[in-house]
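#onboarding

Welcome to the new folks! Below is a worked example of what a typical request in this channel looks like: someone posts a single protein sequence, and someone else replies with the predicted structure as tokens. Don't worry about understanding the tokens yet, we'll cover that in week two.

Example request:
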Amino acid sequence: MNIKIAEPPKLDPADGYRRVCRLQTTLSRGGHPGGFEILAITAGEGNGWHFPPQVLRESLALWEGVETFIDHTAEYRLRSVRDLAGICSSPRWDDSARGIRLTLNATGPSADVLARMGREWLDSPEPRPRLGFSADLLFTAQSDEQTVLKILKVFSLDLVYQPARGGAFLEEVQKAPMQTDPIYEFFMQAFQGGMMTANQPQSDIQPVQPVLPGIDPPQPTPEELSAALLEARLGQAGLPARLAGTLRSRFAGRAFPPAELETAISEARSLVAELQGGRTITGTPPLSTVTAEERLQAAVDDLLGAPREPNMTNAHVERLSGIRELYTMLTGDLNLTGGCNPRHMQLETTATMPGLVKNALNKMIIQHWQELGRAGYRWWEPVVTVEHFNSLQQISGVLVGEIGALPGVNEGAEYQELSIGDSTETGAWQKYGGYLPLTLELIDRDDIFRLKQYPRKLASAALRTLSGLIAAIFTANDGAGPVLSDGKPLFHVDHANLGGADLSGNAWEAASAAIYDQEMLAADNFSGPSLAVDARYLLVPRALRLTAMRILYPSFEREANFFSENLQRGEMGDVITVPEFSDANDWAAVADPRLAPGIIVGERFGLQPEVFIAGSETSPAMFSNDEVRLKVRHFLSVFVADYRPLYKSNVD
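Example response:
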């Protein structure tokens, strides 16, 4: 690591002593930076609002460093630097005026306008022009009584025509004249006298005693001036204490040209940089890489109850009081007109409120999706194969047939191409979705509870949609299922996967044997071996659940008294209750999809629904409906790839 210490500006003798003289003159004469004493605001009525004295007193700290512009800016426009005229300082309470008194220092491109108008107004006899100061404020109020409760922020204090609440010039603060020329001449004469005699014997040096009006001898000697310059420059150089002490000893007690001191300091700084250049800095705390957008997103996550990003888990961020506070800070729309007001924006960030809310809702959907799955809503997961696709083209050829036995190859003979078949079933995509309105009414009411319900309802609706699509494979066409590429329903006697017996141990065994004896998917001219996979999952309506569990888990027959407790714990194993099975007697069997996949669930952008911003604070929906729309989108394809691992009993 290379450490470079910035070089200080070079000082020639005249410039160096001019600065010292000006500093000493200002300190000795008590010079003031200049400007005006003003009243910023007084207690009383203004623009229809009542400002109590106590509220103004409590806001004193907010007025320090507030800028002053010439005139208020128009609504929805940013401030122009050309209008900057001054800056306020030293806020204090004025009992006689019952208001806030400030010192206003003229500065900026419009400082001359402020200073000239202030002087003319103070020097003018009555009647004077109705000029004064008006504050641009953000405050909370008791709307029914139009009483201000608390001032939250002071955006600016502007010089305007007809101020609303008592702002006025009080007096001009005169700036003390510098009058540096006589002192400058004195120092330069003293310094030049010292330099001219630097090479003469000590006995030949004559003290310089210039006579200045109002200053009594003795005057500073060149040695005293050099000592002052030495201390000033060493204090600015930032050198190690020992090295600074060495330079102090080297130059102490004698007059020297400033250039000699600058050369010595430059050499010392170069030495420090060279010695420290190869060192590793230890003990320095790591720099924070958390951005303002990440902190704001974490605050929104906390507000809505969404999980934070991993890097923000332990970060301390400010708490938001509600969705309205977030909206007004980001848009400046204090009156909820549905637009952006840059003057009143409190956060300088590229983040938008719909974007922040969208991110939090997406994380909450994932969280609720997992919670609902643990509660049993994702019953279909064990019996399907989920595949991700990179386009919305029609899905085909997702299941490859079996090869069967490998043929023998004689010595020196060619290898033959193996016969293999593909599933001819195809899947089509379907888009599901809608939008959630984030209305101004919801924002104004700070309806956080309602907003928190959105992701839970979305996750539940998406799960029900997917559950219905998968269950329809078993219930469509009066329980026969969808029509396959061979023109026959999924469950058909020609497919050897359709029965009609009530659920019992023997019926379950028959279903399992039917799946086991199915021939593998193979090429058309090849007879494949049997699937040799038993049924794994038993799908039943709620009415058959206990019967199914007694079949697959005989211990329930002997432990019937403990069944309800086990059910509440959700430990149902391979017996799966399908909410959409409306027939109380029909049931189905499915092989393990890891060994014999039968049902394919295709997803394009994930199984969970996505939330997008369908507009912004300036969109037509906001203009016509007072709402920002959060669009919900879900692409899914659910289809049968192979009938062999599936069995259905449609009980008459």
